[in-house]
């Protein structure tokens, strides 16, 4: 792939497959989810080798270092060669999902919980919170 000297940030983020479409990358720039040194970037910002960008995408937070400029979108195996992921392990989505508290879900349209359902919910929450407070007291 020929490398280009000037490249827009939205096109670069799309090419390295951080965003599915270039429009989504541009919208993320407009919304202030792409930052360099704490400053929001416009979609037309020019990418330079060695720059480090903070990218927020939903719950995901990534820290990306530019190692090469990529004009067109390529497959994922090749795209990895053009950036370095500097995201700390604690900030990765898989790490955070291990420590998420269980959430209670009810089927849509099931109506309000009955008295019996409410007691079961309370018992479940008491068990969870008591176990977690015991663990934090021991530390």
From the structure above, extract its key features.
alpha+beta; 15% strand; 2 domains; 5-stranded antiparallel beta sheet; elongated; 5 strands; Structural Genomics Hypothetical 15.5 Kd Protein In mrcA-pckA Intergenic Region, Chain A; 139 residues
Explain what this protein looks like in three dimensions:
By secondary structure, the protein is of the alpha+beta class. The chain folds into two domains: 9-98, RNA-binding S4 domain (Structural Genomics Hypothetical 15.5 Kd Protein In mrcA-pckA Intergenic Region, Chain A); 102-139. 36% of the residues lie in helices and 15% in strands. The protein is built from five helices and five strands. It has a five-stranded antiparallel β-sheet. A hairpin with a 2-residue loop joins strand 1 (34-36) and strand 2 (39-40). Helix 1 packs across helix 2 (22-30). The longest helix has 24 residues, at 115-138. It is elongated, with a radius of gyration of 22 Å. The termini are far apart. The model has no long low-confidence stretch (mean pLDDT 82).
Give a quick account of the main beta sheet: strands, pairing sense, barrel closure.
Answer: 5 strands, antiparallel
CATH architecture of the largest domain: Roll
* Tally of separate domains: 2
Structural class: alpha+beta
The neighbouring-strand order within the major sheet is: 2-1-3-4-5
Determine the fraction of residues in helical runs and give it as a percent range: 25-40%
How many whole angstroms does the radius of gyration measure? 22 Å
CATH class identity of the largest domain = Alpha Beta
User: What distance lies between the first and last C-alpha atoms, to the nearest angstrom?
Assistant: 54 Å
Task: List the secondary-structure elements in sequence, H or E.
Answer: HHEEEEHEHH
Put simply, the count of helices is 5
Approximate shape: elongated
Residue runs with pLDDT of under 50 for 5 or more positions: none
| Strand elements, count | 5
In the CATH hierarchy, the third-tier topology of the largest domain is known as Structural Genomics Hypothetical 15.5 Kd Protein In mrcA-pckA Intergenic Region, Chain A
Could you give me the name of the CATH homologous superfamily of the largest domain? RNA-binding S4 domain
Share of residues in strands: 15-25%
Q: What would the average pLDDT be, to the nearest integer?
A: 82
């Amino acid at each position: 792939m020929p490398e280009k000297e000037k490249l827009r940030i939205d096109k670069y983020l799309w090419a390295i497959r951080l965003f599915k479409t270039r429009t989504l990358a541009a919208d993320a720039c407009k919304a202030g989810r792409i930052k360099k040194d704490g400053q929001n970037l416009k979609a037309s910002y020019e990418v330079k080798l060695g720059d480090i960008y903070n990218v927020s995408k939903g719950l995901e937070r990534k820290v990306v270092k530019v190692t090469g400029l990529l004009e067109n979108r390529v497959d994922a195996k090749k795209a990895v060669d053009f950036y370095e992921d500097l995201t700390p392990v604690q900030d990765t989505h898989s790490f955070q999902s291990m420590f998420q508290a269980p959430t209670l879900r009810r089927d849509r349209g099931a109506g309000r919980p009955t008295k019996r359902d409410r007691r079961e919910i309370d018992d479940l929450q008491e068990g969870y919170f008591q176990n977690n407070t015991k663990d934090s007291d021991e530390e």
